[in-house]
Write a sequence for this structure.
């Protein structure tokens, strides 16, 4: 009986699980920080134990814009999919905006105001100095379209909107709390902030997301937010889901430009 009661207690305390027997890492908004992405991937790989299956890597979107090397980030992610088949990639609102610009430059011009210029430079195209110079923009647009490789376009067009694993639901931005997870709009999944962030109702699954930056990652029984504003703070964060345990791994750019990686476990109560 003692054994049974202990077993029941254990079951009661069991938290949400993504995949039994395999670690899952969900990586937050990279925004052109190629060095932090490489550091984080190396850190995750170095932590792999002998005999352990490859962890599943889920990228939460916003690979491009603002930071210096969006093109390098996409190239690294494409390579990663070759090295570690099974990695999964969500679309952020910034990938949506970049694709829109590639398709329709006038409709997509707004993209240049929220980080797109840095992305153009990473592909070797200098954006016009004057935002109102439509002819210069038309020219830059043509150069940019020619500069983005077909492999990058295929990657951007193949991104997912949601990933469901066990008790977890992975999205870029969040979900509308009064609507079932199966009936969310693409717009909300990629753009929502409130009422998702502050709502207190439990959702069908724990939502893992990026999009809204904070100095520290967020973790409670409704949601895990891992956007730590990499292009601004120099810290890129991923959450590690290991059984019903939860922790964070961070790649940090030091003052001398080197990148260090550290793990941080959350105790069960905090999780
Ligand atoms: Mn975003």
């Amino acid at each position: 009986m003692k054994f049974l009661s202990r077993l029941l207690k254990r079951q009661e305390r069991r938290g949400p699980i993504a995949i039994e027997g395999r670690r899952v890492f969900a990586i937050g908004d990279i925004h052109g920080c190629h060095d932090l992405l490489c550091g984080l991937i190396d850190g995750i790989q170095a932590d792999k134990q002998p005999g352990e299956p490859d962890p599943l890597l889920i990228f939460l979107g916003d690979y491009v814009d603002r930071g210096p090397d969006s093109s390098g980030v996409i190239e690294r992610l494409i390579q990663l999919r070759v090295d570690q088949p099974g990695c999964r990639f969500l679309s952020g609102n910034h990938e949506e905006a970049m694709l829109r610009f590639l398709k329709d430059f006038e409709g997509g011009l707004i993209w240049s105001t929220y980080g797109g210029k840095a992305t153009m430079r990473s592909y070797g195209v200098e954006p016009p100095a004057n935002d109102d110079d439509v002819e210069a923009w038309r020219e830059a647009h043509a150069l940019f379209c020619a500069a983005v490789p077909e492999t990058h376009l295929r990657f951007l067009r193949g991104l997912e909107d949601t990933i469901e694993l066990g008790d977890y639901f992975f999205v870029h931005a969040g979900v509308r709390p009064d609507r079932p997870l199966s009936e969310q709009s693409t717009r909300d999944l990629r753009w929502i902030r409130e009422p998702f962030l502050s709502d207190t109702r439990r959702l069908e699954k724990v939502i893992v997301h990026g999009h809204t930056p904070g100095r520290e990652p967020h973790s409670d029984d409704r949601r895990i937010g891992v956007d730590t504003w990499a292009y601004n703070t120099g810290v890129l964060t991923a959450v590690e889901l290991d059984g019903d345990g939860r922790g964070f791994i961070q790649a940090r750019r030091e003052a001398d430009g080197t990148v260090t990686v550290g793990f941080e476990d959350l105790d069960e109560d905090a999780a």
About this structure: Confidence is low (pLDDT under 50) at residues 6-10. The pocket of manganese (II) ion is lined by residues 62, 92-94, 172-173, 211 (CB under 6 Å). DSSP finds nine helices and eleven strands in the chain.
